[in-house]
Write a structure and sequence with these properties.
Blueprint: E1 10-17, H1 33-45, E2 54-60, E3 64-70, H2 83-88, H3 98-112, E4 118-125, E5 131-135, E6 143-144, E7 151-156, E8 167-171, E9 188-189, H4 244-263, E10 271-277, H5 289-296, H6 307-314, E11 322-326, H7 332-348
Parallel strand pairs: 1-2, 1-4, 4-10, 10-11
Antiparallel strand pairs: 2-3, 5-7, 6-9, 7-8
Helix pairs in contact: 1-7, 3-4, 4-5
């Protein structure tokens, strides 16, 4: 536990990836990455002081579950839950709507609006962003259940480097309970995707300019060529396939722009700490470590050459966090410990 003598208190949102790639069994561990994450994330909570520190939780795949922050995070709530017991209930198996997860965590920080505490987001992921949460301009009378533009998550079901493959949506962007099934279609009328998520290209011809949080889906960041924006290629080119790489590009830009929103809050000065869980996933879906370092505004960017150093110079006056790597899930506990230590150092300054 963090020593509480002579240090600031913290409001911290712990953001955990529960995507399907977390279900791989880790060599030598005999457990899935999802199982190891639950153990290690629950242990991470022990570093903080109930009654002083204020902790909340976001668990995300396609949809995000949000547990609002509280100083009594080790005491069962009215439903008998604590943050640690909720972490223990996580099941993995969906996409990676990263911008939505960071956006939900940031919304909690701004709702609490406590500038006396250190405001922190700790974000753990095992892959590239691959879900855009937005309102979409649909065709053929496809509307939401209330009659407005359909709103939800559009995701890709192929690796990021694949130029064509399956696009799925629109899926619910939030769920009321941590055990509520993820990847479910939104309520909608006159939409083909209501009966088959992979037929979303019949309803949604292309991506919007911004996501639900107001983030541009264009640059400034993407290793997958954001200069090609706007993406005018329909999701249904010849052969009935779709264009998942566009969604990875847009998702990457969205989460980068959301992180910039967080770091540039002049009242709360939030810090982002990132953990990249690497290992058994597809090569094209491994975490984008440069993206995560940029999101955290990790001081190590100063020693980079090329674009990493440029990012550092652009963000030099914004709050600095820290980036930790876990080469596989068996080393995830060390990464969480490293992040806790870095937060301890900052709280004591």
């Amino acid at each position: 536990m963090i020593s509480t003598a002579g240090r600031r208190d913290v409001i911290l949102m712990l953001v955990l990836d529960r995507s399907s790639s977390m279900n791989g069994v880790v060599a030598g561990a005999g457990q899935t990455a999802c199982a190891l994450m639950k153990t290690d994330a629950a242990a991470f909570v022990n570093y903080f002081a109930p009654g002083r520190d204020q902790l909340g939780l976001v668990v995300f795949g396609s949809a995000a579950y949000v547990y609002h922050s509280t100083t009594s995070f080790t005491t069962p709530d009215a439903d008998g839950n604590t943050i640690q017991s909720l972490i223990g209930q996580i099941s993995c198996g969906a996409n990676t709507a990263s911008a939505e997860a960071i956006g939900d965590a940031y919304a909690e920080l701004t709702a609490v609006n406590d500038s006396k505490r250190m405001n922190v987001i700790v974000f753990m992921t095992d892959g590239r962003p691959n879900g855009v949460t937005a309102k979409f301009a649909a065709t053929d009378g496809c509307v939401s259940a209330s009659g407005g533009p359909p709103e939800g998550v559009l995701a890709q079901w192929a690796n990021g480097a694949v130029p064509k493959g399956t696009t799925a949506g629109l899926m619910q962007d939030s769920v009321p309970g941590i055990t509520t099934a993820d990847g479910q279609a939104i309520g909608a009328k006159n939409c083909t995707f209501s009966g088959d998520l992979t037929k979303v290209y019949k309803d949604i011809p292309n991506l919007p300019a911004t996501d639900l949080f107001g983030n541009s889906l264009a640059g400034p960041y993407s290793q997958l060529n954001s200069a090609t924006w706007p993406y005018t290629t329909p999701f249904n080119p010849t052969g009935g396939t779709s264009v998942p790489q566009q969604i990875v590009i847009a998702s990457t830009n969205a989460v980068d722009n959301e992180a910039t929103q967080v770091r540039t809050n002049a009242n709360l000065h939030p810090h982002i700490y990132d953990i990249a869980l690497e290992g058994d996933g597809p090569v094209d879906d491994q975490p984008d470590t440069l993206l995560l370092r940029k999101m955290a505004n990790d001081p190590s960017l100063a020693a980079d050459t090329g674009i990493g150093k440029t990012f550092y110079q652009q963000q030099i006056n914004q709050p600095h966090g820290y980036f930790a790597e876990a080469p596989d899930a068996s080393q995830l506990a060390v990464a969480f410990d490293t992040i806790a230590t870095q937060i301890t150092i900052r709280l004591s300054q």
